[in-house]
Amino acid sequence: MTPLGEVGHPRVAILTDETGWHTRKLREALRRRGFEGRCADLADCRFDTAAPYGLCIPGFGRRLPVAVIVRGIAGGTLEQITKRLGILHALREMGVPVYNDARAIERSVDKAMTSFLLARAGVATPQAWAAESEVEARRVLVREASAGRGLVLKPVFGSQGKGLVRVGLVEGQFVPLPDLKDFGRLAYLQRYVAQPARAGFDWRVLVVGGRAVAAMQRVSDHWVRNIAQGARSVAAPLTPALASLAEQASAALGMDYAGVDLLPDPEAPGGATVMEVNGVAAWRGLQKVTSVDIAQAIVDDLLARRLGLPLGPGLSTRAGS
Ligand SMILES: Nc1ncnc2c1ncn2[C@@H]1O[C@H](COP(=O)(O)OP(=O)(O)O)[C@@H](O)[C@H]1O
Ligand SMILES: [Mg+2]
To answer: How far, in Å, is the centroid of ligand 1 from the Cα of 202?
Structure first.
């Protein structure tokens, strides 16, 4: 008898636009627990009201996966992304655990909503604004500059540190708002949190099942410290303050697992402030600097918490414990 009483290995869908290191790690982790991980691209998943569940997931024939891990969603038109998220919503409606749930992914992909939810939950996060009106956005720049503060203008759906611009007060000069056409005609502004220009860092903390499992510093001379922008990952202790902040941020967005970005901020109570929360987080950089098996932590949390599978002794869902 295999888990869940199915014949053969029950199949978990790993939804991704890119197979490689992450999907291999997830498949190995699933295999260790008696499950088969099958990759499918959300772009290739279809609605078909005549199909058994109204859905076609490549590699699953007429059946539904027992669970879904969302690993990557490719960029696309508003219509395509709506359909892809629709597939995730539909899977949830059919009773399939989706890790992270579409609602959580939507919240975290939208930086304005992330700021709103973090602030509402009382989690330290830089003050932020999102306005369609350029006049209103300029007012914020001027008001903040006159108080001696600068801002970061970010693409609201951005990732990997692409397209960020410092505006308002920057190194003593006033930098005006650029044309918002490259920003989807939306100004998402966040207060700039100053860091040392050389070898400054931010933190990435991975939270799995509500618990912070590992942390790293991303070190760079550039103020945008994403690994994709050339920052180096350096091992960092997961202090109780950092863990608690990241866990609160993950909970505020309703995440099963989350990559939480934090900046050192001496003015914040825990010494750090949450910049953003990633709902489709990569962990290759983090895996290099931690002994915790991250893919196994994710898989075990999915199986235990979302599928209710009793993991035996030694198969703790608390990675590293
Ligand atoms: N408010 C800010 N103050 C200072 N640095 C910031 C701020 N926001 C972002 N950064 C820098 O830019 C990086 C990318 O910003 P982030 O909001 O995480 O967007 P992305 O989704 O592109 O990763 C951060 O990791 C940090 O190094
Ligand atoms: Mg980030």
So the answer is: 9
